[in-house]
Protein: Aminotransferase-like plant mobile domain-containing protein
Amino acid sequence: MARLYHLARLNNRCFRLDEPLDVAYQLGLPVDGHYVSGCLTDFHVYIEGGRPAWQRFQELLGVLPPADQIQKFAVNCTWFQETFGECPDGADEETVRRFARAYIIMLLGTQLFADKSSNRIHIRWLPFVARLEEMGGYSWRSVALAWLYRCMCQVANRHVVKLAGPLQLLQSWIFWRFPGFRPVGYDAFSWPLASRWSGYNPGVSEKGPRVQMARLRIDMLQARDFIWMPYSTPDVLQVVHPVWEIHRAMLTMGLEWGRSEITSLACPVTTRHFRRVRIG
Structure:
């Protein structure tokens, strides 16, 4: 897989940043693997066997959402939460696989590839969850970064007012590299590194002054205000290196990242939102 780098400039100095590695450290996503590719708009044309998208949805998840919960090829989050909120005790293998597919679709649609609506989940991921055993074999790191870049390019348009995508990745990247923007009291961290800020929830009432202060800080940034190598300190290496070596060894041995289909996507930063395939 080609290595992707970003050339950053601060005043008169340029630095190369390994942003795919950032994604791997921050979210714990697989580094190597198959490309995640497909058609964003006409994905349904390429569904296996040429079957209609909603027919395939019912085959894989065992149920269809009501018409009032569907908007073209997106389903309201509330329906997903109410229908697949928790896998029942004693469920058979097929039921567990259906809940696992729904969990992964929710994970992808709300955490890594969320749209600006914040309340709908697209079903374009059906071809991927159809083969649960292969989910850990894709380079989710690369596609998450590409999706974030796409969303950031779109929001640069002056007529666009909302930013979509894996915003927890962007927020964590900022906090790790710009100490002046970090919230107070989040000194402890573990793997993946973005989980460091899991309890951070700024008040909405302070949005206006906070944005103004952030803009002022950006205007006054100096080279010393940016951490170019945040993962090279001993305390971070103690967390990152052992886990990373285990993941590399597992991939070398041809093993899956997760212990089951539910964890095969390997995005542990979001598991705090989901317990026993439970949303809420």
The CA atoms of residues 44 and 51 lie 8 Å apart. The first helix runs from residue 19 to 27.
